[in-house]
Amino acid sequence: MKHVTIHKKLGETPLQTLIRVRELYRLAKDIPLAYAGRLDPMAEGILLVLIGDTCKKQAEYHNLDKEYLFEILFDFESDTGDILGMPTHATSPNPSLEALRALSHTKPRPFTAPYPVYSSKTVRGKPLFLWTLEDKLDEIMIPEITTTLYRMTYLDSYTQTPAQAKDYIHTRINSLPHVTETSKALGADFRRADILPAWDTLLSPTLPSLQIARFSVICSSGTYIRSLAPHLARALGTTGLAYSIRRTTIGRYIPLPLLGGFWIKKY
């Protein structure tokens, strides 16, 4: 067995997923495991796990294309680009159905964005999230990454009351394991002790219903959905963040302008 795919659960870390794979397939402790293409804490879905000697060829699996289903919550932003960040709120007109549909496309488009400041991208030997937590971002240039959006599809929209959104956010953030190690104290347990009260304050019962839009996207490796969601919101003249992220496919995608494209290999 060279590799397996498994559903990374919401709130589960990739390391916890590897432990589950080892137990599920009864793999000996001396058999190495590695994942190809990590998922953020607030993301779930397909995780490709390499087994044994395949781990030595990990680089061969780094450039696989992915497909995601994701939602955008409008009128909110955060410093992570998703709900697991310090939020801000600014009311603006809801995007029209026509504007949402106009975001769909079937031809490849480049997407350039800075790496999220809460990411593992290394700058001068240190991950960006540490530069951020140490309040030293002004000492570095945040690098950008250009990826390809092969196909984007607007699916539908729905609304939630502030109370429903509050319950949803609490449930998802509290699905994360509590971090108690002294060595990780700088992150302060995903900052949930500050983030959840901030959401509670912003999600006042006096707010009107919140608009959420659902999309699917097929994209190249390295695309951060929590960067894409705010980008799309800005294109609509408003603000937004990734409300949910689920990876549905990983493999090789061939875009064909006339036929719409197809997957030549899925994992």
In short:
This protein has 267 residues and is an alpha+beta fold. The protein contains six helices and 13 strands.
Layout of helices and strands, plus pairs?
Blueprint: E1 3-8, H1 14-24, E2 33-36, E3 43-51, E4 65-74, E5 76-78, E6 87-89, H2 97-101, E7 109-114, E8 122-123, E9 126-127, H3 128-133, E10 144-160, H4 162-173, H5 192-202, E11 210-219, H6 225-235, E12 240-254, E13 262-266
CATH architecture of the largest domain: 2-Layer Sandwich
Apparent shape: globular
Strand content: 25-35%
Element-level helix/strand string: EHEEEEEHEEEHEHHEHEE
Helix content: 10-25%
Structural class by secondary-structure content: alpha+beta
Number of domains: 2
Distance linking N and C termini: 13 Å
Largest sheet: 9 strands, mixed
Mean pLDDT: 93
Radius of gyration: 19 Å
Instruction: List segments where confidence is low: pLDDT < 50 over at least 5 consecutive residues.
Output: none
This entry's quaternary arrangement is: single chain
CATH topology call of the largest domain? Alpha-Beta Plaits
CATH class of the largest domain: Alpha Beta
